[in-house]
Amino acid sequence: MIKRQTTINRIFKISGIGLHTGRQVTLEFLPRREFGIAFVCKGTIIPARYDMVADTRLSTQISNGDISVATIEHLMAAFYFSGITNCLVYIDGPEVPILDGSAWEFYQGMWKAGVYEFPDSGVYLKVQRPVEVSHKDAWVRIKPLNTLDITMSIEFRQPVGKQKKRVTDVENAFSIINSRTFTLLEEIEAIKKAGLAKGGSLDNAVVIGMDDIVNPHGLRYRKELVNHKILDLIGDFYTSGYRILGKVEANRTGHYLNNMLLRELFSDTANYSIY
Ligand SMILES: [Zn+2]
């Protein structure tokens, strides 16, 4: 468990294609003294913060003026798991590369770069009062607790059905880091017709067929899909700017509700404390 602000110990790059644009993108990671994670695109700095989130329909997208960076959530989760609090990410396109659909390659890059610790604290946000947001049958809530504890439920058509998972030791939950994004087979056509997921393939997403997983090697974990929803939530919650401590319970949540929860949390300073 990290106690202080940290950054990466050396510069590194990661390249890959964007899921929606299908275009090659390169990220360059630079150490940062200032607190927080921020992207730099076309000379514009965009803090990776919940109040910069402008679109949550297919991924978490941040914007500053007319410059946007999409699909930041898996990268943000990698920062969380690596214990990195301060970093500048230079990006030469509008979307973070999808890589294998998980946070694994980002996490490996950060692990190889190493962690540099600053003397400054103020990296934890402790929830002081319960906060909840919901939309139809989807909801996410957080209650005071001294650790981060996440229980996630999802429900999709067969062969997925209902899945539930609780992670108590989130900082060391390595099966979350490499769990991949997924889609239902019947949704691919509509997404492609809308001009999205141009870079989507079985190399970067799990595709759920009518009676089995389409990917030739199947799933990485029996609960890979619910694991990935936890990965998304961890990445989205890290746009709070802090390592959140609290008991999280979520049912069918996504990027929209995850962002709404942070907005609700920060709407009253009595809801949390920073240390
Ligand atoms: Zn995801």
TrEMBL record:
One of its GO terms (molecular function) is UDP-3-O-acyl-N-acetylglucosamine deacetylase activity. Keywords: Hydrolase, Lipid A biosynthesis, Lipid biosynthesis, Lipid metabolism, Metal-binding, Zinc. It catalyses: a UDP-3-O-[(3R)-3-hydroxyacyl]-N-acetyl-alpha-D-glucosamine + H2O = a UDP-3-O-[(3R)-3-hydroxyacyl]-alpha-D-glucosamine + acetate. SUPFAM superfamilies: Ribosomal protein S5 domain 2-like. Gene3D superfamilies: lpxc deacetylase, domain 1 (3.30.230.20), lpxc deacetylase, domain 2 (3.30.1700.10). Pathway: Glycolipid biosynthesis; lipid IV(A) biosynthesis; lipid IV(A) from (3R)-3-hydroxytetradecanoyl-[acyl-carrier-protein] and UDP-N-acetyl-alpha-D-glucosamine: step 2/6. It comes from the Bacteria. The active site is at residue 255. It holds the Pfam family LpxC. Zn(2+) binds at residues 74, 228, 232. InterPro entries: Ribosomal_Su5_D2-typ_SF, UDP-acyl_GlcNac_deAcase, UDP-acyl_GlcNac_deAcase_C, UDP-acyl_N-AcGlcN_deAcase_N. The keyword Membrane does not apply. Its cofactor is Zn(2+). Its EC number is 3.5.1.108. Catalyzes the hydrolysis of UDP-3-O-myristoyl-N-acetylglucosamine to form UDP-3-O-myristoylglucosamine and acetate, the committed step in lipid A biosynthesis. Belongs to the LpxC family. This is UDP-3-O-acyl-N-acetylglucosamine deacetylase. It comes from Pelotalea chapellei. The lineage of its organism: Bacteria, Pseudomonadati, Thermodesulfobacteriota, Desulfuromonadia, Geobacterales.
